[in-house]
Amino acid sequence: MSLVFVFISILVLILLITWLKFNPFLAFLISSILAGFLLGIPPEQIAGSIQKGIGGLLGDLVIVIVMGAMLGKLVAESGAAQKISDTLMSIFGIKNVTWAMMVTGLVVGIPLFYNVGFVLLVPLVFTISYRYKLPAVYVGIPLLAALSVTHGFLPPHPSPAALVAQFGANMGLTLVYGLIIVVPTIIIAGPIFAKFLKNIDARPLDTFLAKPKKEEDLPGTFNSFFSALFPVFLLIGTTTLMLNMSADHWLFPYLKFVGDPGMVMLISLLIATYTIGLRMKFKIPALMDIYVVASKDVAMILLIIAGAGALKQVLLDSGVSQTIADSLQGWDVDPLILAWTITAIIRVCVGSATVAGLTTAGIIAPMVSGGVVDPNLLVLSIGAGSLMFSHFNDAGFWLYKEYFNVSVKDTLKSWSLMETIVAVVGLGGVMLLDAFI
């Protein structure tokens, strides 16, 4: 019955947004309250669950998204995005733009959290789309496919890293297996799938669409790439140092502080304020005006994501994910397929890839200790399932929809279908690899 109640709650959410044209944030609050009552959460605890969900998700994302929007706006206004796009196009050519975006997403996605990579690189997508008159979704989906797959499949991202530890897998071997599966997966879900999305009408946020500048007014190539991608360098550096350093070392706490995604974005914004701001003859008041505009443009995005966090928390507090996992545990199927199926169903119902993966891990763990399945492949199978069909209850769905400014229908046709392709092709890669090792 729990699944029926989850379905009803999500259906109400969909109808409020698409039929009654409610603001998504209000629709999420109403659906969250309804889900709480239907799933048996005591009335006096429902408001607390909603507040916890909003606070928990915004606490993780608000600095990243706001600082990322400010950095993206500055990169656009300074001409750095134009310089980067011109350089990429000179290397790959306009015909291969989707491959350029895929490679960029893969390289950046390995060290960066998904949301950081999104807010950093999406402005580049919009610049290329605007400058070369290419459909924004066509350019962006290969990039997002690569970011999403690295987030779900590869350590050191939180969920895969936690699964590696829980199953006693080998992180290096999991990473190698993961890369073998990731490459064909993002090719299919990225450049190949993007060919079918050229007619989707997208009107990206104006904040990232700067007027073209003359070549002599642009920052240098190194300065442009350095300023835009400094968060990547900083995260790679701090992560590498921490992996090769004892937790007792006096420097470790400081590296952990600097390597926090929020601090990375703040430090990067301050550096970019100088390198492509003050050095390019921007005045401080003008830079602050740019940042204010950028913050206003993402305010509603933050509220919508907060609403998704409220619904996710209500579903978690109701225990529905564990109920689903328990009901599927007795299925007599291949352990890798079983793990993927349980994860995929929880992901679709709850909306969180991390929650889906870690919930499944607790159910599947006995199979690892019994030597029934390769733990490295099990991590990847669960990672693939955790990306299945992102929709209305997933913050990533709304992040994509609002940034690209596409309809709900087109979001489902592009983003949700891309995530489904990633999940299915990823499972196919795991099963194929299992047949050879």
TrEMBL record:
Keywords: Cell membrane, Membrane, Transmembrane, Transmembrane helix, Transport. One of its GO terms (cellular component) is plasma membrane. One of its GO terms (molecular function) is gluconate transmembrane transporter activity. Belongs to the GntP permease family. InterPro entries: Glcn_transporter. It comes from the Bacteria. The chain crosses the membrane at residues 5-20, 26-42, 54-76, 96-122, 134-154, 174-197, 218-242, 262-278, 290-311, 337-365, 377-400, 415-436. Its main location: membrane. It is found in: Cell membrane. It is a multi-pass membrane protein. This is Gnt-I system high-affinity gluconate transporter. PANTHER family: GNT FAMILY GLUCONATE TRANSPORTER (PTHR30354), HIGH-AFFINITY GLUCONATE TRANSPORTER (PTHR30354:SF22). The keyword Nucleotidyltransferase does not apply. The keyword Repressor does not apply. It holds the Pfam family GntP_permease.
